[in-house]
Structures are given as structure tokens and as C-alpha cells.
């Protein structure tokens, strides 16, 4: 088996950056080159202001950067030097043409593949790290073999299961590592080469080797199952509110069944993040493509339930505030899609802010990690993907006038009619809620979209509190 001395990773994003940082830490004998077409991103990776906020990441990067970890825009040289190339580029939902709004956009994957084929001067192992539709490896092989017949290219699927906010721990102590490849002598050899890299820190029994298509499909399936649990508990949260049951008590009772398990049963304002929605839409698209409309409808419901939950929360705010939020100051604590990340892609916050802005509210936001420009971009992006005749689209002026971003949470809350907690940042629990109450307009409403303020004594202070799934 050929020993891997140099790895190139194309895509220095939320997956490529942290994953390769951990590779560099655990494989000091391997040179890791992370490349990206975005020069600002590479510049940031070479500074102490990393483009990705992730607890523990900066410490690792500081230890290995310049030793065996390198960030560069020189993609061709890195491809040339590496025996193994990870493709870790973004695969967003397609927003044009065939499959618009459903299929994964594979143009970045295809560009990388063509670049590898053009530049390679010897045999390469290509590793799909991005989340891809089942059978993408076939397209990669077709493109490569069409461009170059001189060298041998093996394509592996090695999907990433890290969650943002806990990425470093997830990478260091992965439940499992999945490696799919061709069941030919060359394919099996490539699988072993990648297994040997992970075996530097992951116990062998946790490294699963499968066929290519099983590996690709397992990733979409894992995300669909996780999202389904959140939608299931969120569906029950609506019923709890009608019946007087408490969703946290129900989740605890259900989760203590060892066949079900306690994780991923936290009712919320709706799941966000760049992947759950995208990957389920992709799964739905694939099911339809393969002639399985009933299977497609089954999974589509997970997304519909999530949309319902976000909408239900925004409507709850509006109806509680006497059916109008026009010109009212509504504060929003949190914008990131979960705590401990600066990522806000598909965050429930975007959809809720959008609905309130349409109702002419003044939304005052505070988030410890997400920049104001990012928030505006998120709202602008949402307008660009809205369907319909444009009636419900906000203009850039409406967004910039209506969304006021604060560096100080207390300023975001001062004189507000209501506040909404949409991200579960730990610091929110430590706020001086008594003084916040004193400085809000009365009656002061608090909408806890994460149910994190249990025990903060808010009702005793005087707040009128709404929590998800509590009657
Ligand atoms: P990202 O947008 O943060 O990063 C992707 C990077 O690829 C960007 O920096 C972009 O500039 C770069 N890029 C795109 N095309 C390029 C090209 N042709 N050459 C060089 N660079 C190029 O995306 P991400 O969140 O890291 O996700 C990457 C993939 O991993 C996706 O398929 C996603 O579904 C999957 N994934 C993401 C997570 C997560 O937590 N974010 C977890 C598991 C899997
Ligand atoms: C998710 C998966 O957990 C990862 O395994 C996967 O690699 C990744 O997607 C991906 O493919 O991108 P991530 O989206 O980073 O990771 O974060 P999660 O912890 O899964 O949370 C997703 C969303 O669900 C967040 O908005 C979170 O607040 C919400 N959630 C999660 C709930 O509302 N309730 C829960 O009980 C759990």
C-alpha cells in the first residue's frame, strides 16, 4: 500500500478547516495543505482571526500551522504534491434550472474534479468529504476518466459527521468514521490507505468500510434521521401547548427508553444549519428521481414541520403582542443556528426576523459571534429564494431600516416590548433579568424559543413568558 505523505483538502470551510486541523494534530508525519479559491478566507486561516469560530480550533491551528498544516490559494501545486485529495467544497441547494430548490448544486465539486484531472501528474486518491447525492462518485469517475487516462484515480466516500460548536471533540472522538470505496483490489487498497490515516487516533473498530453507494447514502440518511427527531418533538410541542402537557417532561420520559435514547429531543424554534434542510431536500429529490414519490413525501414532511415551527413561533409573537408589532421594538437574542458557532446559515432567526419585519417591527438583535453584515446577507439571501409574485419580499432598505444590530445585549433589550431567545448561548442565562425587566415596556413579554431560561425566575420577576411546548 502506498504511504500517504501529503494530503490536499480543497475547501477551507466549516468542514475542511477543522477536519484538517485535527488531521495535522494527530498525523504529524503527514503534510496537510488546505486550499481555497477565496483569498480572504485563506488569509484569515493564516491569522489568529479564523473564519470559523469553533471551541478549541484556534489552539490546534496555532500548534500545527507552519509545521505540517498549511493554508494557501495555490490549488494546482497542492494537488500536484498530494497523494490523497479531499473535496470539501460547499454543495448548497440548487437555486436555478433543473432541480431548483431541491437538488444539491454540484458545480463546485465538478470544478474541483476537472482541476484535479487537469493538474495531476501521477496516481491520486480522491476523497469525497462533502455531502453528496448517492452515486456522485460515478460522475466524478466519468469526468476524471474522460479528462485523463494516463493515471489511476480511486474515488472514496468519507462523509463528515461533525456538528458545529462541538466539531473538535466530534473529530477527536468520532462515534464512527465511514469509508466507502470500490470493492476492487485498487479500491480496497485506497480504503486501507485512508483507514491508516484515521487509525492514528480512531480505534479500528470504529472505522467502517463499505461500498461507495452505501457510504454516500448513509450520510444523507443520518442527517435525515437527526432532523426527523427534532421535527417529531417539535410536532409534539404544538400538541403539548393545546393540552397542558410539558414537552420537556415528555421528551425526558420518551428518551429514557433505551431504544429511543435521550439525544436530539430538545424542542426548539426549529432546526437550522447549512445541512439538515439541504440534505433532506436532496434526499427527497433523489427519491422522486428514482421513482419513489411516497418515500419522497415521507421525508419532505420533516422540512414542512420545521417550517411550521418557525412560522408558529413568529405568529405567536405577533398575536401575543395584540396582533401587531408595527413600529414596536422587539429584541432578538441570538442569530447563529445554535450556540458556539458563528455560522447562521438557515438559522431559524432569519425566518422569524423576516416575518416580524414584514409586520413592520423594529428587530433589535444581539449575537455574540455573528457579524451585522452576515445578518443582512442572510435576510437578503432569503428574499432571493422566496417564491411567489414578490408580495412577501422585503427590500434591502426595509431590511437595513428594520434590523438594528447591537454589540451590547442590554441595549438591544432596553425599552423593548418583547424579547425572543432564538439561540441557546450560555451567556443568556447569566443576564441580570431583573434589571432587563425594569427597563422593558410593560407588559414585558419573553418568548423562549429554546426553553433555556427555566429556573431564571422570569415569571416571578414579572415577565409574561412563552416557552415552546408548555401550556
Ligand atoms: P463552506 O461553505 O463553509 O466551505 C466550502 C469552501 O469551499 C468555501 O470556503 C469555498 O470558497 C470553497 N470552494 C468552493 N469551490 C471551490 C473550488 N472549486 N476550489 C477551491 N475552493 C472552493 O462549507 P462547509 O460547511 O464546510 O460544507 C462543506 C461540505 O461538507 C458540504 O457538502 C456540507 O454538506 C458538508 N458538511 C458540512 C458540515 C457542517 O457542519 N458545516 C458537516 C458535515 C458535512
Ligand atoms: C448536523 C449533524 O448533527 C452532524 O452530524 C452533521 O455532520 C451536520 O449536521 C452536517 O452534515 O452538516 P449541525 O447542523 O452542525 O450538525 O448541528 P446540530 O447539533 O445537528 O443542530 C442542527 C440544528 O438542530 C440546530 O439548529 C439545533 O439547534 C437543532 N436541534 C438539535 C434542536 O432543535 N433540537 C435538538 O434536540 C437538537
Description of the molecule:
The protein is an alpha/beta fold. It is 44% helix and 13% strand. The protein has a 6-stranded parallel β-sheet, with helices on both faces. Strand 12 (418-421), helix 17 (433-438) and strand 13 form a beta-alpha-beta unit. Helix 1 (16-26) crosses helix 3 (57-64), helix 5 (107-119) packs parallel to helix 6 (136-147) and helix 11 (276-289) packs antiparallel against helix 12 (293-320). The mean pLDDT is 96. The longest helix is centred in the middle third of the chain and has 32 residues, at 212-243. The structure holds nicotinamide-adenine-dinucleotide (NAD) and uridine-5'-diphosphate-glucuronic acid.
Low-confidence stretches: none
The count of β-strands is 14
Strand content bin:
5-15%
Helix content: 40-55%
The average pLDDT score comes to: 96
End-to-end separation in angstroms reads 62 Å
Question: Quaternary arrangement of the chains shown?
Answer: single chain
- What small molecules are bound in this structure? nicotinamide-adenine-dinucleotide, uridine-5'-diphosphate-glucuronic acid
Q: What is the approximate shape?
A: globular
Helical/strand content category = alpha/beta
Q: Can you count the helices?
A: 18
Main sheet attributes: strand count, strand direction, barrel closure: 6 strands, parallel
Rg is 24 Å
Order of the strands making up the biggest sheet: 3-2-1-4-5-6
Amino acid at each position: 500500500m502506498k504511504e500517504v505523505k501529503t494530503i490536499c483538502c480543497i475547501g477551507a470551510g466549516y468542514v475542511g478547516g477543522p477536519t484538517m486541523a485535527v488531521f495535522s494534530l494527530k498525523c504529524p508525519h503527514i503534510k496537510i495543505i488546505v486550499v481555497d479559491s477565496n483569498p480572504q478566507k485563506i488569509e484569515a486561516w493564516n491569522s489568529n482571526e479564523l473564519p470559523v469560530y469553533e471551541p478549541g480550533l484556534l489552539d490546534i491551528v496555532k500548534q500545527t500551522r507552519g509545521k505540517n498544516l498549511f493554508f494557501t490559494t495555490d490549488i494546482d501545486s497542492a494537488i500536484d504534491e498530494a497523494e490523497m485529495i479531499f473535496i470539501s467544497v460547499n454543495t448548497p441547494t440548487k437555486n436555478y434550472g433543473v432541480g431548483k430548490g431541491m437538488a444539491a448544486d454540484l458545480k463546485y465539486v465538478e470544478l474541483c474534479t476537472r482541476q484535479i484531472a487537469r493538474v495531476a501528474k501521477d496516481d491520486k486518491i480522491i476523497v469525497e468529504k462533502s455531502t453528496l447525492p448517492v452515486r456522485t462518485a460515478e460522475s466524478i469517475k466519468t469526468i476524471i476518466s474522460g479528462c485523463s487516462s494516463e493515471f489511476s484515480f480511486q474515488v472514496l466516500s468519507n462523509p463528515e459527521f461533525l456538528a458545529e460548536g462541538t466539531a473538535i471533540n466530534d473529530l477527536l472522538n468520532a462515534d464512527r468514521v465511514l469509508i466507502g470505496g470500490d470493492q476492487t483490489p485498487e479500491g480496497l487498497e485506497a480504503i486501507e490507505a485512508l483507514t491508516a490515516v484515521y487509525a492514528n487516533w480512531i480505534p479500528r473498530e470504529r472505522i467502517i468500510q463499505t461500498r461507495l453507494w452505501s457510504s454516500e447514502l448513509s450520510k444523507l440518511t443520518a442527517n435525515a434521521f437527526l432532523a426527523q427527531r427534532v421535527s417529531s418533538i417539535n410536532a409534539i410541542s404544538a400538541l403539548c401547548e393545546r393540552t397542558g402537557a410539558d414537552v420537556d417532561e415528555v421528551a425526558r420520559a420518551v428518551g429514557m427508553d433505551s431504544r429511543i435514547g435521550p439525544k436530539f429531543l430538545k424542542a426548539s424554534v426549529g432546526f437550522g444549519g447549512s445541512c439538515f434542510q439541504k440534505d433532506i431536500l436532496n434526499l427527497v429529490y433523489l427519491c422522486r428521481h428514482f421513482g419513489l414519490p411516497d418515500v419522497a413525501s415521507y421525508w419532505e414532511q420533516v422540512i414542512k414541520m420545521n417550517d411550521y415551527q418557525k412560522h408558529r413561533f413568529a405568529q405567536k409573537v405577533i398575536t401575543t403582542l395584540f396582533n401587531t408589532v408595527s413600529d414596536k421594538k422587539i429584541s432578538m437574542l441570538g442569530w447563529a443556528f445554535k450556540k458556539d458557532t458563528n455560522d447562521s446559515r438557515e438559522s431559524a432567526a432569519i425566518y422569524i426576523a423576516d416575518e416580524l419585519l414584514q409586520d413592520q417591527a423594529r428587530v433589535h438583535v444581539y449575537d455574540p459571534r455573528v457579524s451585522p453584515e452576515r445578518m443582512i446577507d442572510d435576510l437578503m439571501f432569503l428574499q432571493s429564494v422566496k417564491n411567489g409574485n414578490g408580495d412577501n419580499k422585503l427590500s434591502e432598505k426595509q431590511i437595513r431600516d428594520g434590523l438594528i444590530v447591537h454589540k451590547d445585549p442590554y441595549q438591544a433589550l432596553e425599552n423593548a416590548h418583547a424579547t425572543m431567545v432564538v439561540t441557546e448561548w450560555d451567556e443568556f442565562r447569566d443576564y441580570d433579568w431583573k434589571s432587563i425587566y425594569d427597563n422593558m415596556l410593560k407588559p414585558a413579554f419573553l418568548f423562549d424559543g429554546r426553553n433555556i431560561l427555566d429556573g431564571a425566575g422570569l415569571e416571578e420577576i414579572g415577565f409574561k413568558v412563552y416557552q415552546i411546548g408548555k401550556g
